[in-house]
């Protein structure tokens, strides 16, 4: 078989993420910023769900949630997580692992109030992940909060609604290749920079 070079360049992984993410936003039909978020309890029991990336850069990858939800309580007890982006249209995926830190109150306020009014209402009305005796209970809460704050056009951010930033220690890029001879490159943070290596598929 003819030798071939990796098509995933050895470069700054954050810049490479930016390039892949920009392409995904052009090609994915829905929610190119959707990512699987895996958390775990202190004794290692995992759970995973889809969330939306809301900010990213060299400092990390940010998402927002209810801190009293299942993921929020797991993060509080074990602030390590993993992310997975899978862009089917591009046949690419990126895995990111690292510790989490909570965003500032100012950042949480700014993002919460950038959302549509109805989304603010829905978040304020939800006891996320907790048992709901009847859907009408939630809808009644939504209606009450909407009526209370409609004239203001925004809802006060609940204190338990916040954001978390995953600070990457490992980033792996995966690209589909013919005959399952996939291309993988792993970046691992070392000091102030990154070490990288190819991986067997």
Explain this structure.
With 201 residues, the protein is an alpha+beta fold. The protein has a single domain (13-112, 159-199), classed as Pnp Oxidase, Chain A (Roll). It has helices spanning 13-27, 70-77, 105-114, 117-125, 135-149, and strands spanning 34-40, 46-52, 55-57, 60-66, 80-87, 92-102, 161-166, 170-175, 183-190, 193-199. Strands 1, 2, 3, 4, 5, 6, 7, 8, 9 and 10 form a ten-stranded antiparallel beta sheet that branches. A hairpin with a 7-residue loop joins β8 and β9 (183-190). It starts with 12 loop residues before the first helix and ends with a strand.
Give a nutshell description of this structure.
With 201 residues, the protein is an alpha+beta fold. It has one domain: Electron Transport, Fmn-binding Protein, Chain A (Pnp Oxidase, Chain A), CATH 2.30.110.
Proportion of beta-strand residues: 25-35%
Helix share, percent: 25-40%
User: Termini, distance in Å?
Assistant: 16 Å
What's the shape?
A: elongated
Q: What's the CATH class, please?
A: Mainly Beta
Output the radius of gyration. Answer: 20 Å
Oligomer: single chain
The string of secondary-structure elements, in order, is: HEEEEHEEHHHEEEE
Q: Are there runs of 5+ residues with pLDDT below 50, and where?
A: none
Supply the CATH superfamily name. Answer: Electron Transport, Fmn-binding Protein, Chain A
What do the pLDDT scores average to? 95
Biggest β-sheet description = 10 strands, antiparallel
């Amino acid at each position: 078989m003819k030798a071939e070079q990796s098509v995933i360049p050895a470069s700054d992984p954050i810049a490479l993420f930016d390039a892949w993410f920009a392409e995904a936003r052009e090609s994915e039909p829905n929610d190119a910023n959707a990512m699987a978020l895996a958390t775990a309890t202190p004794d290692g029991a995992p759970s995973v769900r889809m969330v939306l990336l809301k900010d990213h850069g060299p400092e990390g990858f940010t998402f927002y949630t209810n801190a009293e939800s299942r993921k929020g309580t797991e993060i509080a007890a074990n602030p390590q997580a993993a992310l997975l982006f899978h862009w089917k249209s591009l046949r690419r995926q990126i895995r990111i692992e690292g510790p989490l830190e909570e965003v500032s109150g100012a950042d949480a306020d700014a993002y919460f109030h950038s959302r549509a009014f109805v989304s603010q209402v829905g978040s304020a009305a939800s006891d996320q992940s907790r048992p709901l005796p009847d859907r009408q209970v939630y809808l009644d809460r939504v209606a009450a909060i909407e009526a209370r704050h409609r004239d203001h056009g925004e809802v006060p951010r609940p204190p338990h609604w916040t954001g978390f930033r995953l600070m990457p220690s490992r980033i792996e890029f995966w690209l589909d290749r013919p005959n399952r001879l996939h291309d993988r490159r792993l970046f691992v943070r070392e000091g102030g920079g990154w070490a990288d290596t190819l991986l067997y598929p």
